[in-house]
Amino acid sequence: MSYLVLFFVILVATFAVAAEDNSTDSFWLLRIKQELVDPTGVLGNWSVRVHICSWHGIICSDDQKQIVALNLSGSGLSGSISPEFLHLTSIETLDLSLNSLTGSIPPELGQLQNLRILLLYSNSLSGKIPPEMGSLNKLQVLRLGDNMLRGEIPPDIGNLTELSVLGLAYCQLNGSIPAEIGNLKHLVTLDVQKNMLSGLIPKAIHGCEELQNFAAANNMLEGDIPSSIGSLKSLQILNLANNSLSGSIPIELSHLFNLRYLNLLGNRLNSEIPSELNHLNLLETLDLSRNNLSGSIGLLNTQLRNLKALVLSDNTLIGSIPINFCLNNSSLQQLILARNKLSGVFPLELLRCSSLLQLDLSDNSFEGELPRSLDKLENLTDLVLNNNSFTGSLPPEIGNMSKLEDLYLFDNMITGRIPVEIGKLQRLSSIYLYDNQMSGSIPREITNCSSLTEIDFFGNDFSGSIPETIGKLKNLVVLQLRQNDLSGPIPASLGYCKRLQQLALADNKLSGTLPPTFRFLSKMYLITLYNNSFEGPLPPSLFQLKNLKIINFSHNRFNGSIFPLTGSISLTALDLTNNSFSGPIPSELTMSRNLIRELDPRLSNCKKLAHLLLGNNQLTGRIPHWLGSLEDIGELDLSSNNFHGTIPAEIGKCSRLLKLSLRGNKLSGEIPPEIGNLTSLNVLNLQRNNLSGNIPSTIQQFKKLFELRLSENFLTGSIPSELGKLTELQVILDLSKNLLSDEIPSSLGNLLKLERLNLSFNQLQGEVPNSLGKLTSLHVLNLSNNHLQGQLPSTFSGFPLSSFLGNDKLCGPPLLSCSELSGQKVERLSNTAVVSIIGAIVFTSAVICLIMLYIMLRIWLNWRKVSISNSDGNGASEKKREEKLVYEEEKRRNGEYLRVMLPSQDEQNHTTCIYHFKMESKLLMDKTMV
Fold it and tell me: Are the C-beta atoms of 186 and 210 separated by less than 8 Å?
């Protein structure tokens, strides 16, 4: 009896725990779990057997009665966000970021009136931002960035008056920045960069009085930068890079005394740089590159004492660098003035900028000699002076710049030798001296620069031999010595530069044989030795170089077999002309399917050519114009190759052409209207290219055409009504997977012989013309995935449902009848009704369990009385039943049916770095808040 009473107590306690566990929340969370895919099992303890406050990611209130937060960030989840979240009415923080969730953001989230933080960034969510988000009047942080969201930013966002962070970066949002943003007086961060936003920056943005970070880079914003931004006194970061902003830089920006980062690169700004920007004493980064700014440099680092990066490249700035530009206590680390119209001698003022790490004066008109005191820039890692008119020799003091990593002096007029002191630069990685007038030998000391990866001395007058110690450069990737006056053999040690990928020794006076150590250059993909005096047979070990793509050994004295050059199946170019090779052409060359093959222009002499069938090869280049001279050609098949460029209009001269197939290439541009001159054409197949523009109306001249395939391109505009004149079309008319719009022309109903019609995956609108119902020969039809609407012709009822899917407003058999479609409604129970139903179910279940327990107890007591009165040997059986009951009770007591897992409290903040610069070719990385 005592065991049964204990069982009753446990059962009652279980119901009591369930009641305290907020059973409605657990019910809805389990419903939400069903929409998620959990490959790593992080939701494994989401079970009615565990208290809800112990579930992974759940944070409850202090009294354990309400769920206040759900954090599943970075849990490896996929699936969709369930609309059932609307039932978690007490939740204040919802973090589902850094997962792989798909589908749309359910508008039901707008009903979570207690929500303060909503983090859905870094998923694969699509669709639009629901305007219902504007109802979350307590929301403080909204981050939806790094998704595939489309559509406009809803103006309803302006209702979120408590919002401090709005992160919508790295999506596909279009439209303009709504003026209602100005209502968000407490907004601190507004990040909408890397979208497709257009229009003007709203002047009302001055209403965001507490704004510190405004990032709208990489959009299509246009117009002036509003002067009202100058009233945002708290602004620290202003990033408007890579838009289409025009006009001048507003002087009002100089009022932003807290500004630390200003990035306006890649716009259309003009006029001079306002000298008032010198008032921004806290500014650390200023990037005005890639604009149309003119005038002289009026900025002074003596006033911008905290400035670390100044980037003014790709403008039309003139004059020289100001005399008092730098002080000895300057903080400047990057000075990038490349691609302007600056002039004068090397500015000695820069030698006072001892903190400089990167100096780029390339592509200007500087002249004169490089100063011998250049080594005052003792911290310099990158010296980029190429494409100027510097003269004189390279000063030996450059060897004192011990931190130098990249030295770019190409395309100047530097003369003299390379100083032997260059060998002291242990960190030197790249040295580019090409297109100068330097002479003398390549110093042996350069091979002491153990960090070297790239050497380019092309187009100088260096003489002597390649240093025998070249093999010491274990990190060398590029060795470019072409077009010099070098002589002697290739050092055998070069084979020990095992990371070498490009070797260019052409146009010299080198001689001898190739060293057998070349077999170690397994990563090499380019080797050019042409115009030298190399001789002898090729080392058999060259066959081991499996990554070779470009080989040019022409104009030498090599002999023997070319078999050692055929070990790579990656070859794209092989030139062995003007040597003394002998023997057969190895069959292994046929395995090099990437060898560039173009149509031989000598084919134009075959005036009687009737069939040119070259499909399914790897031909490259453009389709030649001379094909138009083959007047007798009747069949031209260039399909499934790698042709690019446009379709030449000259093809229209092939008046006898019956079949033209160019499918499966990389052709672009418009279909030339001259193609309509092919009046004898039976088959035209241009599918699977990158063709754009309209379908030319001249296509109506194909009176004998019975097959037309233009699918899988980027064709736009409407379907020309002239297609209805191609009454001989029979096999197929395929215009699918394009960007065609407007209505289906009723003239297509004239194609009475047509057997297959495919217009799917376009942007077609309007109703399906009743005239298409007359196409009685049609046995394959696909109109799916368009924007069609209205009643289908009755004769289409025999086609499968898949022929019409993806047209939401289309009706009639085999789809829903039009009356059903218009009357179709989806009803949803109110929140109160749902909670009432759940409560009723829980209460009824408890009552039933208690009644059953009472009945079982009465039966057991009656049975026990009967058992006690009968002592006829049934004691053993009764003992087994009691032992079983004790065993079951013991299992429950030992917690075999209860598992408790503590939730993880880890929560990471994800930020990205604000700025990084390494040479002009690796431009600025912007601060991102998605």
Answer: yes
* Residue of 262, 408, 324, 372 lying closest to 919 (CA atoms): 408
Q: Where residue 201 falls among pLDDT bands split at 50, 70, 90?
A: very high
Q: Integer distance in angstroms from the first to the last C-alpha of the chain?
A: 64
Give the H or E element holding residue 818: helix 818-823
How many helices (H) and strands (E) the chain has is answered by 5, 59
Amino acid at 581: F
Angle between helices 875-893 and 2-20 in degrees, nearest 10: 30
Interval 876-906: pLDDT, tens:
444 333 343 333 433 333 333 222 222 333 3
Name the residue with tokens 């077609």: 764
Neighbours of 761 (CB within 10 A): 19
Rounded Cα–Cα distance for residues 336 and 343 (Å): 15
What is the C-alpha to C-alpha distance for residues 562 and 546, in angstroms, rounded to an integer?
Answer: 15
231 within 8 A of 238, measured Cβ to Cβ: no
**What is the rounded CA–CA span in Å between residue 453 and residue 359?**
21
**What are the backbone dihedrals phi and psi of residue 10, each rounded to the nearest 5 degrees, phi first?**
-65, -40
CB-based burial of residue 80 (10 Å sphere; 0-12 exposed, 13-18 middle, 19+ buried)?
middle
Question: What pLDDT digit, counting tens, does each position of 260-314 carry?
Answer: 999 999 999 999 999 999 999 999 999 999 999 999 998 887 788 899 999 999 9
Q: How far apart are CA 362 and CA 338, in angstroms?
A: 5
At 620, give phi and psi (nearest 5°): -130, -175
pTM over 0.70? The answer is no
CA trace torsion 345, 349, 352, 355 (10° rounding): -80
- Which tokens go with 116? 């303060």
CA angle 887, 890, 896 (to 5 degrees): 110
> For residue 462, what are its two tokens?
């260096």
- Residue 223: half-sphere exposure toward Cβ, Cα within 13 Å: 12
Residues 180 and 203: beta-carbon distance below 8 Å: no
Structural tokens at position 355: 């903190």
d(CA 490, CA 465): 8
CA distance 207 to 226: 13
| DSSP annotation string for 663-686 | -SSEEEEEPPGGGGG-TT-SEEE-
Mean local confidence (pLDDT), 368-375: 95
User: Which of the given ranges, 13-22, 294-303, 383-392, has the highest pLDDT on average?
Assistant: 383-392
8 A C-beta contact, residue 419 and residue 398: yes
State the Cα–Cα distance between residues 591 and 107, nearest whole angstrom.
57
Please state, in angstroms and as integers, the Cα–Cα distance from residue 520 to each residue in 426, 499, 536, following that order: 25, 9, 20
The closest alpha carbon to 909, from 67, 41, 98, belongs to 98
Residue 291: DSSP 8-state: S
Name the amino acid, one letter, at 602.
R
